[in-house]
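QA checklist item 7 of 12: single-chain prediction sanity check.
[x] sequence parsed
[x] length recorded as 364
[x] structure emitted
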Amino acid sequence: MNIDLTDTTSGRINAALVRARRAAGTPAVGMVLTLVIVTDEAHHYDAVKAASEASTEHPARILAVIKRPGRSPRKRAAARLDAEVRVAGESGTGETVLLRLHGELADHAHSVVLPLLLPDAPVVVWWPEEPPPHPADDLLGALAQRRITDASTAEDPVAALGVRANAYSPGDTDLAWTRVTPWRSVLAAALDQKPDAVIRRATVEGEGQNPSVELLGMWLAERLSVPVERATSDGPGITAVRLATEDGEICLDRADGTLATLGVPGQPDRGVALHRRMTAELIAEELRRLDPDEAYAHAVRFGVGRLRVPAGKGAALAGASSQETSGSASGGSTTDGAPGGAPRSAAKSAAGSGAGRRAGGGAS
């Protein structure tokens, strides 16, 4: 059921939601959170579609904030709120409200959103495209327990990781990090099978300027305290991770973006499903947990500049992007990506890695 409201108010939108629920035969509010999407006309369709699909797992009230400040001085000075209320049908198991903020009202989105939040329910804010420099300090971000960004949509995705590191606050996360959850889970499980193995170095292969490749490399470097080399491949996404041990190489290789091969010394190779996930699956994963993601915080703060880049490869990664992100690394920065370069046992890497808490199918 769709209800269009022109030049309306938050109170009228709340009343329309009640009418729509009664008309659909579901007067009770069974939603568990409010998901606020801050986007524009060009990208709102895909974002709302992904959120609606994720709401089948997490029933939510979806508020899509579409800012239309206007180009002329007359339109920028005007203020109007138009809304489209959707209940059932395309809205999954929850409710969807498209809020179009015209003129000066575009600068006061929080005042429109606040009365529409579900009472006593968590709030998640998602910026599918360009987020504010400091999401936690944004007026909408301040309303939320979790704030989701996506570095892969930035003009310079690798440099965006440095911005995320400098602006990090508990509750922040990024879909570039969500995409590596299955890789972290498989690697942690492989290391658990060889708890006494000593990791000497690691290599992460993937597309250039792919933030998920960088985050996976930073996670390995931070957890294992070993040099991590960043190698560029044709993709798609992450293509391989190689961990050099005293007994041989642990290799997780995925060349086609769907099926990976896991090789562990002394064991036969086996296939692992690592398909590249859609945005709806990524959002659904992030909505499963609303506490701060400490593993992401440690990884993004490690700094891209501390990963090794082979000579002649990934020159763009070693340029301005790494210079910006290197300043966000915690502790003393070293070019080999590991403080002191001391190898660490596999048991230490698997324990407390955070991968097990966020296991799921799929990959970047």
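[x] summary fact logged: The longest helix spans residues 10-23.
[ ] second reviewer sign-off
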